[in-house]
Every structure is written in structure tokens, then in C-alpha cells.
Design a protein that fits this description.
By secondary structure, the chain is mostly helical. The chain is 45% helix and 3% strand. The chain contains nine helices and two strands. The longest helix has 30 residues, at 174-203. The radius of gyration is 35 Å and the shape is rod-shaped. It is a multi-pass membrane protein.
Length: 240
């Protein structure tokens, strides 16, 4: 049990022994205890009420343990505090003895997260152009058939031809046959292009673009496509 506790030890821990004495643990705790022991310093451990590391407020005051040192409520702040220009102006820092990187995690994006994700195979301009062509062709064929077929039947037949269904129109003149052949060629090409794109997507899904660095994260948050969360009162809040 002791070994497990050591493995899970945090950066700074405070334990109260049965005799009432305070025992520090964790990386920062052992480090501080060694210094206090060598210098014969007796100390009390206090915690900020807001449980923050320290961030500057609009009125110039600070929250967290940085604020406690600034106001004189504590003599020393422990907790691997990151240094920046604003904090350095508020309190004095010791010589740096450790470094810590900053990173972020994002949820894994699904390649096809929407129910109508297949519509994204074409862009909006292409879809609008196809709809306009389809509506125009419906009007032209309805006029060509001179009322022998209802508008809905023309619409239904043209839509079916886009889905590779037979086109049932009674045309006699060469001009009408040329128009019908042109539409059949167009619908065959467009349905083949869409089917090919859909099959390619299902066979080898393309990777969705994800945020890779802090610059992209900042841009994504600014655009509203992503939201960033951080521990309250940490240095990353005012920066990002």
C-alpha cells in the first residue's frame, strides 16, 4: 500500500499525523521539508480559500497562493508555480529548478459525425448548381412534353434518372431526343462521380483535421469551432 501511495504521490501534499504534527509529501513537499529542516525553520501550512494558483484580477490584486504572498498572508508559495512577467512583478521568485511543458488534448473527431454527412462529399456551390440545373431541366422537359405528363411526373422521372433509374418519356422529334440524351449523359456522369466519391470515403475515410498546436487552438477558439478549458487560476488561463 505504501508503494502505491508513493507512485500516486502528488506534487505537494500535507498530512496530519496522529500526534498533530504536519508532514509534507510529494515532490515539492519533500523539497521544502528538507530546506526547512536544514535551516531549523518552524512553519505552518495555509491554503488559499479559492484553491487557485494565482491569476491577476481587473483591480490589480491576485487570487490563489500568489495573492496570499502578495498580501503578506504567507511567506512562501509552494506548488511548481510557473513564472511570467505579471507574476514576477507581483512577487519574488527563487531561481528556477524545474521546467514543465504545456500541452492540451482534444476529443478524437469522427470522420462522419453527422446523419447527413454524405452531403459533405460535394461543397455547397456544387449542390446549389446541381439543384438549379435539376429545376431548370424539369421546366424544360415539362414544356417539351406539352402537358402530356404532369409536372410531378417529370420531376419524379428526372430525379430517378439521377439515381440510375430508367427515364420514361415519349419523345419523337430529333430535338427532343437530343435533349433527352444530353440529360441522360449528364445524370450518368454526376451519379457516377457521387458514387465514386462515396465509395472512396467508405473504403478509406479521410482524416478529419484536428488542432495540432497552440496557434491552431487559439484560432479555433476565436472562430468558435473549439472550446478550451483549463484548471481555474493557472497560468494558461490568461495566456490562451
Amino acid at each position: 500500500m505504501d508503494n502505491r501511495r508513493r507512485e500516486l504521490s502528488k506534487v505537494f501534499e500535507v498530512h496530519i499525523e496522529k500526534n498533530g504534527k504536519t508532514r509534507l509529501a510529494g515532490i515539492e513537499g519533500y523539497f521544502a521539508h528538507a530546506i526547512f529542516t536544514e535551516m531549523n525553520i518552524y512553519y505552518d501550512v495555509v491554503f488559499p480559500e479559492d484553491h487557485e494558483f494565482g491569476r491577476e484580477l481587473n483591480n490589480g490584486s491576485w487570487t490563489g497562493i500568489v495573492g496570499m504572498v502578495q498580501r503578506g498572508e504567507a511567506d512562501l508559495a509552494i506548488g511548481t508555480l510557473q513564472t511570467n512577467e505579471d507574476r514576477f512583478r507581483a512577487v519574488d521568485f527563487s531561481f528556477p529548478y524545474t521546467t514543465d511543458g504545456m500541452t492540451f488534448v482534444v476529443l478524437k473527431s469522427s470522420e462522419w459525425s453527422k446523419a447527413f454527412g454524405f452531403l459533405e462529399l460535394f461543397d455547397l456551390t456544387t449542390w446549389m448548381l446541381l439543384i438549379c440545373i435539376f429545376l431548370l431541366a424539369t421546366v424544360i422537359f415539362f414544356t417539351m412534353l406539352k402537358g402530356t405528363t404532369s409536372y410531378f411526373e417529370v420531376f419524379h422521372n428526372l430525379f430517378g434518372s439521377m439515381l440510375r433509374q430508367p427515364l420514361i418519356f415519349h419523345v419523337d422529334s430529333p430535338e427532343n431526343r437530343l435533349l433527352t440524351g444530353t440529360w441522360l449523359l449528364f445524370s450518368c456522369i454526376m451519379s457516377s462521380v457521387f458514387s465514386g466519391a462515396l465509395l472512396s470515403f467508405l473504403a478509406t475515410p479521410s482524416n478529419v483535421e484536428v488542432v495540432k498546436n497552440f496557434k491552431e487552438l487559439s484560432e479555433a477558439v476565436e472562430k468558435g469551432t473549439q472550446r478550451a478549458y483549463s484548471v481555474k487560476g493557472t497560468l494558461s488561463v490568461p495566456i490562451y
